[in-house]
Amino acid sequence: MKRQKTKTRIWDAAEYVTSDKDAAAYLEAALEADDPALFSAALGDIARARGMTQIARETGLGRASLYKALSAGGKPEFSTVFRVIRSLGLKLHAKAG
Question: Which of 20, 45, 68, 72 would you label with 37, given CA atoms 20 to 30 Å apart?
Answer without folding.
Answer: 20
